[in-house]
Amino acid sequence: MTRVKRARLAAVGVVATAAVGGLVIGALPVDHSAQPGVRPAVTAMDPSTFYNSAQQKFAAGDVTGGLESLQQMLSVVPVDPYALALQAIWSAQVDDAAGSDAALAKLNGINRTLHTTARNIIAGVDAAAQIVPDTSPKTVTGRTAIVILGYGLNGNGKMAPELIRRVTAGKAQAEAAASAPIVVAGGAPKKGITEAAAMKKWLVANGVDAGRITEEGRSGSTVANAQNTAEILRGQGINDIILITSPNHIRRAAADFAAVGLRSVATVTTATELDKYREPLTRDRQKGIRLEATRAAEIPATRAAGLPLPDNLPDTGPGLIPEFGEKLLESLLDAGSSAIDSLPAE
């Protein structure tokens, strides 16, 4: 079946599923009482409703409820890549390794890039949760960048004490890894000065070669820090980083950077409230960093009505509804609603 026909089905939310006692369209029955030759009416169930419900529940910390909503969506659209990615990521949160692996296996056959992203988030959250903050510079090998994360400037554009502590830790790491390039990340300008510009100025004034330092001065959040830094480092062929920030920020930041494909092979923190963050995150306390990691990876928080199908669905073989196959979907088009007929040709 052609992609155009699949798209026409998807545009009105028409999806076939098996049901005891007869055929069900969009989880609602077709009216078979119509006179011969008259096409039956179809009431569509928009799968975006389930997707949005799942994301709202994850944001509220209701992981079980979110997974139930995703399962409802996947019973309607079994090959939606974002739903499968979320199912894999959040099944890992509740220690359902079998469910997570099954979702990843399906996703790998649909969208390999998103499959990699989901795996990075799962591994990244697990690793981030175990980070024990410490202030010691690290020795690393291979192509690695030092990333120093910003902190809000004072109203006069001067660095706050905690930001000075971060760049001080960054300078020590720069001396321990003398060949590593450095990214200073942070926007939010005050008096026309970004966090990144203030950090670079301090580092250069304290003996760090300016040629090693790249400013990422656009971001106003940790999510944007990760996304924009990834863009910079991809251009340099770098995937591994030494991440530098405060103890209360390091785990969330490491998870966000993992979500965009940057692995924190080492971390260095300031000494601020160090003892308060010695214990690894419990599983329940990982919910927040897992949610934010999905945002860093740009997995949509909401989906608009009229959910489109993935662009990379195969035109033959297992497709939208593997258990029914192509012939049934052809018959649905031939006996579908007037809403289907009214869609423009492509």
TrEMBL record:
The record's listing under InterPro entries reads: Cell_Envelope_Assoc, DUF218, Rossmann-like_a/b/a_fold
The DUF218 domain, residue ranges? 145-276
* Entries under CDD domains matching the protein: YdcF-like
Tell me the domain of life. Bacteria
Q: What is this protein called?
A: YdcF family protein
